[in-house]
Specification:
The protein is an alpha+beta fold. The protein has 2 domains: 75 residues, Antifreeze-like/N-acetylneuraminic acid synthase C-terminal domain (Type Iii Antifreeze Protein Isoform Hplc 12, Alpha-Beta Complex); 163 residues, no CATH class. It contains 6 helices and 11 strands. Strands 5, 6, 7, 8, 9, 10 and 11 form a 7-stranded antiparallel sheet that branches. A two-stranded antiparallel sheet has the order 1-2. A hairpin with a 7-residue loop joins β6 and β7. It is rod-shaped and about 130 Å long. It comes from Jejubacter calystegiae.
């Protein structure tokens, strides 16, 4: 009887020992760190990027890479790989990975300061309500714009000589034609700023509030460009449009007769009719 009890106890001890070993192995396995792989977004410079350059879509290419680390300084997933408008602080060679640490975020304190090279000046172009207000949402830092000037071309008494005058000085007897000239093209945008509307100005719908300034586009100009722009800015109406638009009416001077040739024909017929009546 005693032998049976001892045998039974021995079997129980062996079973308990085996169970303990199994549980110990399971705990060791669970405590072993698991290697987790994930995809990250990295950007590679297509060409050399110099300090002060503002990155556009042509300056980099996006790649996806699988990593096993928790953190990678190359990862651009936080901004979805969108580097457009960022400013380069340190030189990035062609083929090198673009790191956020080497860039200045648009709108940051150092962005405008770093974007200005020796001889560059910021030019604030006003954005008017119900006029070119769309530019505030259409343009971002790093975008390129063109500046155009609209003036009035006057032909007095059908004289072949034509001159440019201020629109406000045109009399009702003069034949008024609008002419648009492109002043500059491919100017970099540094920032866009939205102004706080004036509640007092918005109360009167008949006031000039419809043309109130709702924001500014800060454009980088050289000193020479600034002098030229200041020379012509009061000669007519300056306006800004996104650069890179190809076509007949943006590459040079365009007059009303170019856009509406039928209007010129009507005036010529009327002029010939008056001459015939005099005869």
């Amino acid at each position: 009887m005693n032998q049976r009890i001892l045998l039974f106890l021995s079997v129980i001890i062996i079973i308990v020992g085996i169970v303990g070993l199994i549980r110990s192995n399971d705990e060791d396995v669970s405590e072993t760190p698991q290697t987790v792989s994930k995809n990250i977004i990295i950007a590679e410079a297509v060409y050399d990027l110099l300090p002060g350059d503002i990155i556009d879509d042509n300056a980099f290419k996006i790649k996806s890479q699988l990593i096993s680390e928790d953190h990678d300084i190359r990862d651009l997933s936080a901004i979805n790989g969108n580097l457009q408008g960022y400013l380069v602080k340190n030189k990035i060679g062609r083929g090198e990975n673009i790191l956020l640490a080497a860039l200045e975020r648009p709108g940051s304190e150092g962005f405008i300061k770093r974007s200005m090279q020796l001889g560059d000046v910021p030019y604030l172009f006003p954005v008017k309500k119900n006029d070119n207000e769309y530019l505030l949402s259409a343009l971002n830092a790093g975008a390129k714009v063109a500046i155009y000037l609209r003036v009035v071309e006057i032909e007095k008494n059908k004289s072949p000589a034509a001159g440019l005058v201020l629109e406000s000085s045109v009399s009702g007897k003069d034949i008024k034609k609008y002419v648009v000239n492109r002043v500059f093209d491919n100017l970099p945008v540094i920032a866009t700023t939205v102004s706080v509307p004036d509640p007092k100005a918005s109360r009167d719908p008949l006031s000039t509030s419809n043309k109130e300034i709702v924001g500014y586009i800060t454009i980088k100009l050289s000193q020479d460009q600034l002098v030229k722009l200041k020379t012509v800015e009061n000669a007519g109406e300056l306006f800004v449009a996104p650069a890179g638009t190809e076509g007949r009416y943006v590459n040079g001077k365009v007059s009303m007769d170019d856009v509406l040739p039928q209007f010129r024909t009507v005036k010529e017929i009327r002029g010939n009719g008056k001459s015939a009546a005099k005869k």
